[in-house]
Fold this sequence. Notes:
Blueprint: H1 6-13, H2 22-37, H3 52-61, E1 69-72, H4 77-83, H5 87-95, E2 103-104, E3 109-111, H6 119-131, E4 138-143, H7 150-161, E5 166-172, E6 175-176, E7 179-180, H8 181-185, E8 201-205
Parallel strand pairs: 1-3, 1-4, 4-5, 5-8
Antiparallel strand pairs: 2-3, 6-7
Helix pairs in contact: 3-4, 6-7
The structure holds thiamine diphosphate (TPP).
Amino acid sequence: xxxxxxxxxxxxxxxxxxxxxxxxxxxxxxxxxxxxxxxxxxxxxxxxxxxxxxxxxxxxxxxxxxxxxxxxxxxxxxxxxxxxxxxxxxxxxxxxxxxxxxxxxxxxxxxxxxxxxxxxxxxxxxxxxxxxxxxxxxxxxxxxxxxxxxxxxxxxxxxxxxxxxxxxxxxxxxxxxxxxxxxxxxxxxxxxxxxxxxxxxxxxxxxxxxxxxxxxxxxxx
Length: 221
Ligand SMILES: Cc1ncc(C[n+]2csc(CCOP(=O)(O)OP(=O)(O)O)c2C)c(N)n1
């Protein structure tokens, strides 16, 4: 966990995420898309659109603040901005090739490009926050296929059993790269629908306006 004091984190985070609109997020991704198209970013970039309102609402309604941890994956530009990482800092990290694993520990934003990673970490952080009676919660944002992994099941089950302060946010775009998630599992709904585990999960559907990765001109992974 970050060694910075709560006061420092608060100063760092400011209240800028309150000013983040759908257009702000769209414009950021458009700007990164333009830069990526020039070829100067020598690493994968995953752009997203179509879920801006969902994410803004989730951050607002859950009052996700400086003391909370946000875990994400390869598609986390918007999460970093919403958590209060300054726009220029996010942009510089992406230009430096870190789009798929954005990590800003001082803002409690931790992301990874590995499917199935971080779920246990989020649960562990939530366990520590609860047992140490510290303020803060963990929020883990993932896709629909990630939510079908074994480790996601285990993490949600454990967090539910011990009522840990962790929320799993599943943004369902129906795809895993180019594979139809529902076709793979032969079920129109995610496994947790109408189960007791739903109380630890926020679920929404969206259509991604971008290809899974990059701009769709080279291979996708
Ligand atoms: C261990 C591992 N296997 C495969 C990949 C390649 N990969 C990257 S994203 C992705 C699809 C995940 O689908 P989903 O969770 O629905 O994410 P989203 O469509 O929202 O990006 C895969 C298979 C990876 N990053 N890590």
